[in-house]
């Protein structure tokens, strides 16, 4: 089984890159860099966002010859850290490494003090990954078709767990229900661990979660994977069908990326994008992404901005159509 993300996180200290060695001087005409950079992670230490941020910070510090320090500001599904970054200095000294949770959370939270599109300048996307549709080992459902047939027979009877209202787990499940023209009953939890434990115990019928979150229970034989959420089959699990094979057009992928406060200097954002795009394809980052069954992404600044905008609109529409609200 792959190394755990938590284990990788433990191997990296908070000040990992404060004393990074200098690299080659920036080319003439390059945008001015801040004296140091804080990379905010709006989630607790140990998860994929945190682990990716620490390795990225180390490598970015090497390339820029500027200390890059990771700072965790968790809470409210990532909203506390995101609000902090939205109000930070617009000189590139504060960045945020977040995931697609940024856009799903914004779709259901009506009291956020920032706008997910207008308050941030997307810098660079790091990677994308499918999630897994999993059931308990004793579940009668052996395929997506089995699960959906049961859902159509008795809408609302089947239950699914998630990390909370507005989580990508809930959104991915609701898109599947909508595409299959049925409904499931949502059971929100305070995090994925209790949701997956209840799934393994037979108290909910299915969960859509990241491969990293379900790995230990899969290894222990307490869960089974029915399908992946990507548009097609995953290169990591080519034998697993995609949900889209049963629900045409279905596609949900996790993504991770770096954003700055809106108004950050465009030349600096472009410089950071170029550096990060070079970093994410090196062997160490590829290995990190493989821990999450993810592949590196090398989007330009406009391409990443388009993705964030499209995601925000997509999840808002899903929330409205499926009547999802945090209130």
Question: In words, what does this structure look like?
Answer:
This protein is an alpha/beta fold. Helix content is 38%, strand content 19%. The protein is built from 11 helices and 10 strands. The chain has helices at residues 5-10, 48-64, 79-86, 101-108, 144-153, 168-179, 192-200, 211-219, 266-279, 283-291, 301-321; strands spanning 37-41, 68-72, 94-99, 120-136, 159-162, 185-188, 206-210, 223-228, 253-261, 295-296. Strands 1, 2, 3, 4, 5, 6, 7, 8, 9 and 10 form a 10-stranded mixed sheet that branches. The two termini are 40 Å apart.
Report the sheet with the most strands, covering strand number, pairing sense and barrel closure. 10 strands, mixed
Q: Give the beta-strand count.
A: 10
What are the segments in which pLDDT stays under 50 over at least 5 consecutive residues? 1-26
Helix-strand makeup class: alpha/beta
- The number of helical runs is 11
Rounded average pLDDT: 89
Note the gap between the termini. 40 Å
Q: Percent of residues in helical segments?
A: 25-40%
């Amino acid at each position: 089984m792959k190394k755990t993300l938590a284990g990788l996180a433990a191997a990296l200290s908070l000040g990992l890159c404060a004393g990074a060695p200098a690299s080659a001087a920036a080319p003439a005409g390059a945008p001015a860099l801040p004296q140091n950079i804080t990379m905010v992670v709006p989630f607790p230490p140990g998860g994929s966002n945190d682990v990716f941020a620490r390795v990225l910070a180390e490598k970015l510090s090497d390339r820029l010859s500027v200390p890059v320090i990771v700072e965790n500001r968790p809470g409210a599904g990532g909203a506390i850290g995101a609000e902090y970054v939205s109000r930070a200095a617009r000189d590139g000294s504060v960045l945020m490494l977040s995931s697609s949770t940024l856009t799903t959370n914004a779709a259901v939270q009506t009291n956020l003090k920032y706008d997910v599109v207008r308050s941030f300048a997307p810098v660079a996307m790091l990677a994308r990954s499918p999630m897994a549709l999993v059931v308990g080992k004793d579940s009668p459902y052996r395929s997506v078709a089995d699960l959906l047939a049961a859902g159509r027979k008795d809408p609302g009877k089947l239950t699914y767990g998630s990390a909370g209202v507005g989580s990508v787990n809930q959104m991915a499940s609701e898109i599947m229900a909508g595409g299959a023209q049925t409904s499931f009953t949502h059971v929100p939890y305070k995090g994925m661990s209790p949701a997956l434990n209840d799934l393994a115990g037979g108290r909910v019928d299915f969960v859509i979660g990241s491969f990293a979150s379900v790995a230990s229970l899969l290894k222990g034989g307490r869960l089974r994977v029915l399908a992946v959420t990507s548009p097609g089959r995953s290169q990591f699990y080519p034998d697993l069908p995609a949900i889209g094979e049963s629900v045409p057009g279905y596609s949900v992928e996790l993504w991770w990326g770096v954003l700055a406060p809106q108004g950050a200097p465009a030349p600096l954002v472009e410089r950071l994008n170029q550096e990060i795009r070079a970093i994410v394809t090196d062997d160490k980052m590829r290995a990190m992404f493989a821990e999450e069954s993810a592949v590196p992404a090398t989007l330009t600044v406009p391409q990443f901005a388009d993705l964030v905008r499209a995601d925000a609109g997509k999840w808002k529409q899903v929330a409205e159509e499926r009547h999802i609200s945090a209130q």
